[in-house]
């Protein structure tokens, strides 16, 4: 298949391209930018007039619910949602049922995803067996099976000796650890940020110190072992300051922030909206501003969706009992664009946080439009608004705090390996 994408505004943060250039694709690869190759005859022409043509988005944290929780979402529905959101690659968390701590499970997931010919799936293997935080998983075998890193998902390793050994092993063999910083005893039974809103609503709080203390241990052990560590879903101003200092000291650290935390605060749960029951919890306005500032100055590397589809019934329970999480695959692009608009950030810089830097963190060959690279491409209208509603979301999970909001950024087409996998 030969495809000619014409008249679009091409934005490629990795190659510092922001210009009106045509793109030419053959056999799944980008073979020319700007000038049409000799004897090129397109099988299909995509007119991208008034549209943005950029690398396919890369999401660092998504739950696909397979294996084990297909009643919440299926691999088919969520990968269809991903490409509808312009996402062509995503990292999935290991807290499935059963847990992704066996090579066979990873291989099965990769095989199933590949057969669907939608977005690329990059599993994060369980760092410890059954995510229990006691015995290290067989990281070498899991990597050979297709894992790009190792995570504890939302669970913590309470035994710092186990965490130390994990980082020593990871440093020796070049693995990346994806860790969520939360001290479990301080966070125990908490459902919201420990502040005025939680107190007024009678909800048990999770203090900022839960993130700060856990992050302190992680950073100290990373410094001692030299491990490459990615902090997932930072949520506090103090955490941003600690990451900034760690980077200045030369630690091999990266981090991301959930798109939800760039736009929402503890006040958004004021009417017990269970869609705002997230982990980490929505925090203060000061924290939100610090996260945004950290993203702008490079302390925070990437934006993730933290996609967590939940069955409708699980969100109908009272706030404290409702299941954690929000759907996010189809909202990653518009929420990134909204943040950029609010902060007066250019499109190229904003898109770098969901393409270039995300690819670097995962260590994958993606997130750019270089010559001879795979044609994983997102084409979208940055100015078209659409209303977030259950009927407008392809994901099986309709749980989002942004229901009813009109957002700019409508995906018009998504290509994976030079094949059109979504078109609106």
Protein model, in words:
- By secondary structure, the protein is of the alpha/beta class.
- 30% of the residues lie in helices and 24% in strands.
- Strand 4 and strand 5 form a beta hairpin.
- Helix 2 runs parallel beside helix 3, helix 7 packs parallel to helix 8 and helix 8 runs parallel beside helix 10.
- The longest helix has 18 residues.
- The protein is globular and about 65 Å long.
- The two termini are 20 Å apart.
- The relative contact order is 0.17.
SSE layout:
Layout: E1 2-6, E2 9-12, E3 17-20, E4 23-26, E5 29-33, E6 44-47, E7 52-55, E8 57-62, H1 75-84, E9 87-92, H2 103-116, E10 120-126, H3 139-145, E11 149-151, H4 160-173, E12 176-179, H5 184-187, E13 192-193, H6 196-201, E14 205-206, H7 208-225, E15 228-231, H8 237-248, E16 253-258, H9 259-263, H10 285-297, E17 302-304, H11 332-342, H12 347-352, H13 356-362, E18 377-387, E19 406-416, E20 419-423
Parallel strand pairs: 1-6, 2-7, 8-9, 9-10, 10-11, 11-12, 12-15, 13-14, 15-16, 16-17
Antiparallel strand pairs: 1-4, 2-3, 4-5, 7-18, 18-19, 19-20
Helix pairs in contact: 2-3, 4-7, 7-8, 8-10
